[in-house]
Design a protein that fits this description.
The structure is a single chain. Helix content is 73%, strand content 0%. With 113 residues, the protein is mostly helical. The chain starts with a helix and ends with a helix. The chain has one domain. It has helices at residues 5-30, 33-46, 51-59, 70-81, 91-112.
Length: 113
């Protein structure tokens, strides 16, 4: 199922949201968005980039990797520096979504099995 376009797009979007959420969490934890953005750039600059890395990471990875493309890192840093990160607490909504998914899964299993 991984090679179907719908699954590929969903996985790519999920990965992008995961990166945004991890950035938001790191900023909330440290309270220093500028230092976090500088650390992202420093890690990207220090990552090895050989011809093999370019071929493997850019062509065969199903999702944008952290060290893969500079454009993705640029978007993350711009988002951090433009104060577009969100610091919010959606714990109630998360619990409701998890409980709803669990209830729906159990209901489907009960009906079809």
């Amino acid at each position: 199922m991984f090679f179907t376009p719908l699954v590929f797009w969903a996985f790519r979007d999920l990965t992008a949201e995961k990166e945004k959420a991890s950035d938001d969490f790191a900023i909330r934890l440290t309270g220093k968005p500028m230092a976090f953005a500088q650390a992202l750039i420093k890690v990207w600059r220090m990552s090895p980039r050989t011809l093999f890395d370019n071929l493997a990471l850019d062509n065969f990875m199903p999702h944008p990797n952290f060290v893969s493309q500079a454009g993705i890192l640029e978007h993350r840093v711009k988002r951090i520096l433009n104060d577009e990160y969100t610091i919010r607490d959606d714990s109630r909504l998360t619990y409701v979504a998890i409980f709803g998914t669990l209830l729906l899964s159990i209901t489907i299993l009960y009906v079809f099995c």
